[in-house]
């Protein structure tokens, strides 16, 4: 008997590891829903793999709310939500919502999308997979300076966003595991993609230089994401944890601070409500 295809929503799916994972899952017969910022790239991938697609720019929380409304009304069951959208920006910039751009795109927007979909996700006993990064070690989360008004640096801001992804994962587990949610964060490796290409970050040059040849392919970078999506929490991996290369990975010491995780959740709720 052929298993019923799962509905798998992947954000940041128009390029890189998101697109690689979407192709693999669609080929396996899953119902993939691709979400991207670029209309051209997102539509092209959806047409290629025969998937539904939706557009949203995470720099605008109104678009994230609209996306959540559309997903809720279109898909009564969501088996997997892969929060993969993110990126490294350049100089400190505020979004239309008044939040620092790196923090909003990497953390606040996926936080809003996930919590707005929580009724559907809990009813579906869904997996929530969050793309983090080893860059979390360069981050420093200050609950009283989430918008990086003091001492902003590009890579630190990105690292703080990725640290927030890990803290969000552990707090998701604490709050919702009892309702059937399983969740994990992971580091994909340094992947040969268009990462940072649209930013003014100096790191964008590395992705176009000779260093590019030493980076992982998008398919290689998607490996741990696919392992988490296809594996079973409690058997193959531990819910609430952070992974790299299909194994538990060490993170920034702040990632293990339960009170910080709780505080980040509460502050995130305040920030997304303020923009409503």
Can you walk through the features of this model?
The structure is a single chain. This protein is α/β, with parallel strands linked by helices. The protein contains nine helices and eight strands. The protein has helices at 16-27, 39-49, 61-74, 101-116, 118-124, 154-176, 218-221, 223-230, 258-274; strands at residues 7-11, 31-36, 52-55, 80-83, 127-131, 182-187, 241-244, 247-248. The chain has an eight-stranded mixed beta sheet, with helices on both faces. Helix 6 (154-176) links the parallel strand 5 and strand 6. The radius of gyration is 17 Å and the shape is globular. The N and C termini lie far apart (46 Å). The model is unreliable at 204-212 (pLDDT under 50).
SSE order and pairing:
Elements: E1 7-11, H1 16-27, E2 31-36, H2 39-49, E3 52-55, H3 61-74, E4 80-83, H4 101-116, H5 118-124, E5 127-131, H6 154-176, E6 182-187, H7 218-221, H8 223-230, E7 241-244, E8 247-248, H9 258-274
Parallel strand pairs: 1-2, 1-4, 2-3, 4-5, 5-6, 6-7
Antiparallel strand pairs: 7-8
